[in-house]
Amino acid sequence: MAKNVYHAPSRCPVCNGTVDFTRVNCSECGMEMTGTFALCRFCALEEKHLRFIETFLRCRGSIKDAERALGLSYPTVRGMLEGALAALGLDTPPPLDKSVILERLESGEIDAETAIKMMKGVK
Questions:
Q1: CA-CA distance, 9 to 20, in Å (whole number)?
Q2: Would you call 37 helix, strand, or coil by DSSP?
Q3: Which residues contact 102 (CB under 8 A, 6 or more apart)?
Q4: Contacting residues for 23 by C-beta, under 8 A, at least 6 apart
Q5: Domain ranges within the chain, ordered by starting residue
Q6: What contacts 24+ positions apart, CB below 8 Å, involve 9-14?
Q7: CA distances (Å), 20 to each of 10, 17, 86, 97, in order?
Q8: pLDDT per residue as tens digits for the range 97-114
Q9: Is the separation of the CB atoms in 11 and 19 below 8 Å?
Q10: How many whole angstroms separate alpha carbon 14 and alpha carbon 65?
Q11: How deeply is 84 buried, as exposed, middle or buried, from its count of CB atoms within 10 A (0-12, 13-18, 19+)?
Q12: pTM for this structure?
């Protein structure tokens, strides 16, 4: 008979604190380890964020393809992406350096005026 497998909780149901795991075992050989084990950042995500990230990755990071796969509008998919990034703590974009701005200018991704504005913010 197959054993039920559940998504591990990442927050305490009593106080909403972070949950640590103190015992893990191998379902194949029965090996057990005890200690304090933390969840990975993806393990702590809500199911809705995990499902979105899986779909987004299957769509090779294309918001347009994710729109079609999910049957949702661009703003909704964009909002889901922002929500997943926030849940992972990745909602603040990394600071740009001058070489990245120049590459974006050279590739035509941004115009000269935008590049100048961005350069003013770079230290």
A1: 10
A2: strand
A3: 115
A4: 32, 33, 34
A5: 7-40, 47-87, 95-123
A6: 10/39, 10/43, 10/44, 10/45, 11/44
A7: 8, 10, 22, 38
A8: 888 888 888 988 889 998
A9: yes
A10: 40
A11: buried
A12: 0.58
